[in-house]
Every structure is written in C-alpha cells, then in structure tokens.
Amino acid sequence: MNSRLASIIRKEFIQIFRDRRTLALILVIPIMQLFLLGYAATNDVRNVPLAVFDQSKSAESRALLDSYRAADYFALAYDAGSEAELQRLIETGQAKAALIIPPDYASRLKAGDARVMFILDGSDPTVASTALSAAQLIGQSHATSILAEKVARSGLALKLQPPVEVRTTVWYNPDLISAHFMIPGVIGMILYAITAILTASAVVRERERGTIEQLIVTPIRPWELVIGKIMPYTILALFDTLTVLFVGHWWFGVPIRGSLSLIIGVSAIFLLSGLGIGLFASTVANTQQEAMLTVWMTLLPSIFLSGFFFPLEAMPKILQWISYAMPLRYYLSIIRVLLLKGVGLESIFPDFAALTVFGLVIMTAAALRFRKRLD
To answer: pLDDT class for 164, splitting at 50, 70, 90?
Structure first.
C-alpha cells in the first residue's frame, strides 16, 4: 500500500470517528436492528387471547378447555357470559379467537355427536391461519383421547391405530425459532445499507464542503481515491458482520455451522454490490440528502424482493423474476444456508457465482463513472 492511499484511508477514518452520528450508525444501529428484528420480527404464534362462552359448565367442557389451555397457542383470557359479549371482545381486539360450547355438550358427547364452535378474527391472516390449524389439531387430539378412553372402559382389546402414520422430523432448526431465520438476514441488510449509505454520503460530503476539488488537484490517482474512500467502510462493515454474527450466536442461539472464513469471504464479495451502489449514488447526487434517497430507492426493493421478510415462492411470478436482479437475494440464500446447514462452497456455488458477477459488474461500472466524474 503506497503512502497516498494510506493517507486517504487514515483521513477517512479520522472523519468517521469525529462524526458521532456516523459512529452511531455504524456501531449502535446494527445491534439495535439485531434485537428489534430478533424479538419483534417473528412468525411464531403463541398465547393467542381466547374468549370462552361455556354454556355447558360440565366436567366434559372443562376437559376440553384444559386441552386448549395445555397448548401454548392459546391463552384463556376471557370467560364470556353471552354471545354478544364474546362478539364485543373480538370487535375491540381484546380476543383474537372465541370458543362456544353449547348447553347440551356433555350429553351429545356421550352420544358421540358433540359439536363446538371456534371463531377466529381473520383481520390478521398470519395469526388466524396458524391459530386455525392449532385449534383443529387440539380438537382432534382431544377427540382421539376421548375415543381411546371409551374403548378402554368397554374392555375391548382394540388398539386404536390410524391406517397411515406420518412421523415428522425437522432438520437444522428443530424448534422452528424465527430468530434463526431472521438474524442471518439482518447481516445482509446491515452490510448492504451501511456500505451503500455511508459510501454515498462520504463522497458527496466532500463535494458539499468543496474538498473534493482539493483532492483532485493532488497527485492522488482516481483509483487511489476510490479505494481510499471505500476501504474504511468495508472494514467497519465486516466488523459489524462479525459483531452481529457473534451476538446472534451468543444471545439468540443462532448456530454457526458453516466455515467462518467462507462466511467472511462471501460477505466481502457481497460488499462489492453495496459499495458499488453507494459509489454510483455519489455520482448522481449533489447533496447528502439526494444520495440517501438514491440509495433508499434501491434498498427498499432489495429488502422486500430478497426473501428477507416474505418467501419468494409466495410472490407473483413477475416479482420473482425481478428478484433475480437483487444481489441481496443471493446473499441471504447463501448466509442462511451457511449458518444453519453448514454446507460447503459446492452447495452454494450457483448463488455465489451470481453474487460475484453482480458485485464485479456494479463496482466496476460505478468506479468508471466515478473516475469520469472526477475527470
């Protein structure tokens, strides 16, 4: 590394450490995002408030309620005295589900023809769909246990066995913890956002202050200026990656099954895309506000079309095709596989190759445009 390049890198680090807002963005915001998304962005449905209108008040109805109480999907929060009260609880959002047990439940249960009504608030489809499946499974399990008791009391040596038994096994994330899926995505979002936003802002800030012209008239070559401006943010972004990785592993229990060197190498390749977008934004913006808006125009589509929040398979075909133009899509696919499955390079090679091509093309085009703007 020559002295000119080292001087630019040193100058950029000095500016970063003098700017408290930039330091906060680099060091504090990633940890905040990690905890917010690790706890808040979850698809786990637990403790759904359940209102109960038990008109039977029998031992049989209490046994049914115990079945729902035993599962952590529902919390028996309200004991309604009428259907009108039950409706009010759902309308006001106090209860997300309701169970109505008719007066003749116990007698009908002995006759083998008992029915109850389970009502769900469908305004939130995510909660409603999971709660619906849970309610049906709990009801079927309770019915099976009642049938088994009847058979046992009858003295018949009959074994209740369904004709088909499905035994399920969950690999890589046995407890289905959402944080194990979300936190690897946080790494990609941090790498992309920090490198793009800070790189664009750093270059435009020089232009706003009038110091870019001073740099141009010095013996510094254009490529030295480009590398000197982006190198500090590359180092800091990789530092954030390691920080989020180890905090996620230590606090949330996210496994790190893949090679750490491979994870860092893939992250460094992905940085080329973020740095290139930030560098390109700096050539089309004249103020830091314009640079931020330009980066956000690419950041928001990347987040929503990369599979960070929503599965790509559920999107319309045209959006799935557009997602192939998002480098973040490939990185999220790679980092999640490396952390959770611990595979090698051969398993991620197609995504790795696409990510490398995107990074080189975006970075080269942005660097050439930046040099032309300086000339």
So the answer is: low
Q: Which two tokens stand for residue 103?
A: 């007066």
Furthest-apart CA atoms within the chain: distance in Å: 99
Give the type of residue at 203. Answer: V
Strands 117-120, 97-101: pairing kind: antiparallel
Is 171 within a domain?
A: no
The 3-state DSSP composition of the chain as helix, strand, coil percent (nearest 5) reads: 70, 5, 25
Structural domain count, the chain: 2
In three-state secondary structure terms, 169 is coil
198 & 69 share domain: no
Note whether 136 and 252 are same-domain residues: no
Between CA 257 and CA 172 the distance in angstroms is: 10
Is there a single domain that holds both residue 204 and residue 339?
yes
pTM score, whole prediction = 0.79
Q: Is residue 192 part of a domain?
A: yes
Q: Report the first-to-last Cα separation within the chain, whole angstroms.
A: 24
- CA dist 152 → 94, 114, 145, 147, 361 (Å): 41, 20, 11, 9, 71
CA 76 from chain center: how many Å?
30
- How far is the C-alpha of 146 from the C-alpha of 140, rounded, in Å? 10
Are residues 121 and 58 part of one domain? Answer: yes
Residue of higher predicted confidence among 114 and 217: 114
Which helix (H) or strand (E) is 49 found in, with range? strand 48-54
Q: Would you state the structure tokens that stand for residue 195, as one six-digit string?
A: 């490198």
Say if residue 274's pLDDT is above 60. yes
- Show the domain range for 94: 48-154
DSSP 41: S
Rounded to the nearest integer, the mean pLDDT of the chain is: 83
Task: Tell me what pLDDT residue 253 has.
Answer: 87
Q: Are the C-beta atoms of residues 339 and 254 closer than 8 Å to each other?
A: yes
